[in-house]
Structures
1.
Amino acid sequence: MADDKAAQHDSATSHASDAHAADAHGAGHAHDPFEKGHLIGHVKDAEYFEFPRALGGKIYIPQLLKTDKPLATISTGFKPIDDRIEPFDLKITKFMVLELIAAVIVIVLFTRLAARIKRGNAPKGSLTNLLESMVVFIRDEVARPAIGHHDADRFMPYLLTVFFFIVGCNLLGLVPWAGSATGALATTGALATLTFATVIFSGMAKLGPVKFWLAQVPHMDLPKPIGFVLKPMIFAIELLGLCIKHFILAMRLLANMMAGHLVLAVILAFIAASASSIVWYAVTPASVLGVVALSLLELFVAFLQAYIFTFLSALFIGMAVHPH
């Protein structure tokens, strides 16, 4: 009996301690808007959409599966990357919802555009003309110069899908209280993995499996004994470089989109930091104007980063199907 009371006392003390820590943590967030975890929380993926309290506060996404513990966790040993890798727990997150919305928008818009082109009708309307001009730009200024006129059209569906999906995710990231799905390594990593698979399989389909991998080693007139030693080392370096190029492809998009939203969060944090001071009246207009200006820059970056990702994807594909 005494042991039960002692256990209950310890449990109560533990809960009180945890509650105190949670209060202190929440207070830290309330009084320190520049705290690292608080800022990162605004750009990370989550199981809810966070709105102002007047609009309902946190709205949690219904989950199909209830899992208390993640099924698996991935750790690279490099903390900046590990902080961006979410555990594998089969939960639906807001970035998944935003990706689905972006995909549906792309499907609806281009189904209509493809039907119009198939019928041979002239483009009508500003949106149709805008989409068609962007498609022509990707074909004539990205795919054909990087891959070649004969092979480019085969890869146009993939390149267009990647470009407009990234644009859609980036633009949704500019919607207040939404979030940028391209600010997650899971999204950019999946896109880079698709490009990597396209590069490998298209190269093997064009050259043959053996010739494709042999083509990774540049032609060198070396004596046989030296070539026997150097060529396997060069092949390993080229193979590592192939993997690194696609890893950087994912990290470039991730870093640019996440950095822009972090800067926006920092600028807005100045308003909260000066809330109890008379300086607030000067800081708030300056912060709001700064956010508006930076949001316009982010609008440009949304298209620029989609273009860069698509161009590099086309370049890697072109290098695979035309190694020389």
Note: The mean pLDDT is 82.
2.
Amino acid sequence: MDKAHTWQVVRQQRLAVADLLDGLTAEQWESRSLCTEWRIRDVAAHVLLVAEPPAPGSLFADMVRSRGDFHRVNTLAARRRAQRSPQQLVAGLREHAGSRQVPVVSSYRNVLFDVLVHAQDIAVPLGLDLPMPPQAAAAGATRVWTMGWPFWAKRRLRDVRLTATDVEWSVGSGADVHGPIRAILLLLTGRTTTATAMLHGDGVAHLAGSRG
């Protein structure tokens, strides 16, 4: 996928997330996402944070409070943005869907897999279907497989060969694991339990120990 197509998919996914969120109940907004420490509300706020970043001073303060811990910085920023009302979060996602902002020490390729995965973090635990474009998911999976930190997918999954069944994509060596690229991308980013339910092959038994 080229850069222009990538940003087009990012925009589409942000709008799809906004549409999904717009129909949620108050209880659903407060329920747990696939990100174990984040509510649906927090994930929505994070997706918006990428499109509409916080002020540099706010980010610096979070880095100091977190002592440079990337995950903690993310959580602090998301929870602060999550204090906005559901209506404000949805409106923000729609308003900034076309944003091409890229977080510090990141790239547009990271923005792509980030929105694809977090969209599922919202949809899956709610039992809702939010399609993931296979070609975009394959591009995201390739990025995660090759990037190392923070997922270390290549190291975690060194004993299996991953093959997508809905797009031409395969990596690794070892016991066979195959299934939709959506499931593989979730696996690569640490959503192992959710992904395993959609995957098949002799290597699936190896996946229980593949969490980061």
Note: The longest helix spans residues 3-22.
